[in-house]
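User: Can you predict the 3D structure for this chain?
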Amino acid sequence: GNGVFVLNRSGSTIRKLRTSPEGLSSNNIFNLSYDAMGKRMFISTESGLSIATADGVQAVFHGQEATLSPGRLNGNYVIHTHTDSLGNTWVSSNTGLNVFGPDLKDVLSIHSGSDTCRFIRRTIITGSATGPGGMQWISTLSGGVYQREGGVFRNYRVADGLSSDVVYGVITDDQGRAWVTTSRGISIIDGKTSQIIRLTEDDGLPASDFPIASISKGYSGIIYIGSQQGLI
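Assistant: Here is the predicted structure, written as structure tokens:
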């Protein structure tokens, strides 16, 4: 509810980004991701996507739900973004997924707002990740997780061994496996063999339920997951 705070190394606030006067799309923030190549911060909010640099907010993309929108996003409720090794940024929202190139021009658009969508039927996209070799993963709030390779989609659900069809986020490790947070624990998917390992509180997790889009990987390869009982 208070926008974005920029801190220096000692923890002191040096800048605040808010709707006014800085032009942030909303003060309710769901996710931050950094594009190291473009030196840009992608800020996911409930009213669109804001893109900021060290000089402040540079651009705001709204979705089709906004009345005065250019319609560049499938949905206005932006949940998560990530930038892949090619500099393409994947934007997850309530009604689909948009991919923008390094120049912020459209690369790919996947709709998920109806039962007649081509690839992902009616659901909310909660996140995405790109593994070694370019294999992509897309997490959804009711349809499990999707694997995309060479333009071909595969859907993993409970019937395939996934912990739950309610998926809150996905990240890939350095071996290319997808770590998927669900409403019933963590599932680890080997994209090459389709083997799934499930982790719950019985395996030592402090919780088996997780906030949406609260998963990331550090530069050293360590995976960080936010749970209802603290950081894993």
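The first strand starts at residue 4 and ends at 7. The chain has a mean pLDDT of 92.
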